[in-house]
Amino acid sequence: MTIEKALVVGTGLIGTSAALSLREKGVTVHLTDIDEDAVRVARELGAGREWTGEDVDLAVIAVPPHLVGERLAALQKQGAARAYTDVASVKAGPIADAERLGCDLISYVPGHPLAGRERSGPAAARAGLFAGRPWALCPGNETAAEALRLTRELVSLCGAEAVTVGAAEHDSAVALVSHAPHVAASAVAASLEDGEDVALRLAGQGLRDVTRIAAGNPLLWRKILAGNALPVAAVLDRIAADLAAAASALRAGDLDDVTDLLRRGVDGHGRIPAAPAGRPVAG
Amino acid sequence: MTIEKALVVGTGLIGTSAALSLREKGVTVHLTDIDEDAVRVARELGAGREWTGEDVDLAVIAVPPHLVGERLAALQKQGAARAYTDVASVKAGPIADAERLGCDLISYVPGHPLAGRERSGPAAARAGLFAGRPWALCPGNETAAEALRLTRELVSLCGAEAVTVGAAEHDSAVALVSHAPHVAASAVAASLEDGEDVALRLAGQGLRDVTRIAAGNPLLWRKILAGNALPVAAVLDRIAADLAAAASALRAGDLDDVTDLLRRGVDGHGRIPAAPAGRPVAG
């Protein structure tokens, strides 16, 4: 048995991109969103047809993290799908919500595709968004093998690589590799706000790269950070302490300490896996 | 009168790239470096011939910042060129050295092409390195018009855009748009050093972009930061304070403060000029 019919709940960037990926593989995709315009745009892009309550094999819940639990509860009450997954960028909170709301955890596989763009909404969606990207799956003890199998099939149909990881471990991980770097990029970009015009004329590709993700939607990122506040704060404290120490060392003329930070940066950078081949650099 | 013969002193990445650019335009280029291997590699790349004391129109001093003054003094003593420029990434220090060593400031135009790569050395050089990039020129009150004209011609032959700016203003500017962002990228990358393997498996393009420049040579950057310590420290203090405040706000659940930083980041990012067309994104 395989995914023949899927439901995408929330036709923003991620939901619509998943729908487009599934459509390319011949899956029947139903779409729903509280925003009628978003569904219309997704339909016009060929992402699927409007959902009118049909049963599906897998429901992909692509709504903001704080709404995942209640959408899951509602869909399960309808018996909409045989298995459910979500795409929220944090996992402990949505899982806690699902438990609190009495959701069936057997058919739910918490997920998170590590993909995105600076633009949001269905018009920015594309089928290749997940190609070669990691897609975290956080099954719990209760999760049924069949639900996990269906969700892995979704990941595979989207061209992504499944990475199985515990929910708490996931949230610490994305704090380290995504959420804290986003805030750090924002702080570097914020320092430019009052810079002299001539300074900005001297900007080069290095600055563009460091600050690229700082162009992301502040309200979307507010929600992401709110859902992962403590792990992100822990990483930010370490980065802030390193930068404050570097400033002090520069003032004192103690370049050894600064050089040590630069060396640690080279080592840390070396741990990042190379980009998947053929992926456009700036998504 | 135009540049017919040039001398490149220091055949590293920048010097050799300038030499290759001048060669493409038919300029006769002489090369010298204290490292004989570096000159040999540059020659084999077609960057020019070894210098044996010939007079030239313009000497391009492409040595580390703390050596610019003494090389300028030595070249002027020989009467090697009609005009001299350097490419050091800081300007106040080399100019002070030149004054202290009694250099002729009439024929010297302090310069700084805003271009680079993570790799260093002549083997990483390429003629197109400066295409479309800003190239800061910091002439002083004494600078002769003819020296400035020759240096502007160098910039033009390299395909770069001259930006005239005072030396102190230049150093504050590059602290803001280059040196402090480099240290910030290093601090983000350093935070990955002890991360879990699974966390690094979840890394995406955003993290790659934020940390790309952290791969730069620590000893080269040590010298750059040493030559611009106080302006860099001032910017780093502001970034560190913003990140520490963001961490506190996240712990307190005060998302408004964090959202304000994200918004300031969007505004600051919006001030960066777009990349020149056709330039490869990751140099």
From TrEMBL, chains A, B:
Keywords: Oxidoreductase. One of its GO terms (biological process) is tyrosine biosynthetic process. It comes from the Bacteria. Residues 4-280 form the Prephenate/arogenate dehydrogenase domain. InterPro entries: 6-PGluconate_DH-like_C_sf, NAD(P)-bd_dom_sf, PDH_C, PDH_N, Preph/Arog_dehydrog, Prephen_DH. It holds the Pfam family PDH_C. One of its GO terms (molecular function) is NAD+ binding. Belongs to the prephenate/arogenate dehydrogenase family. This is Prephenate dehydrogenase.
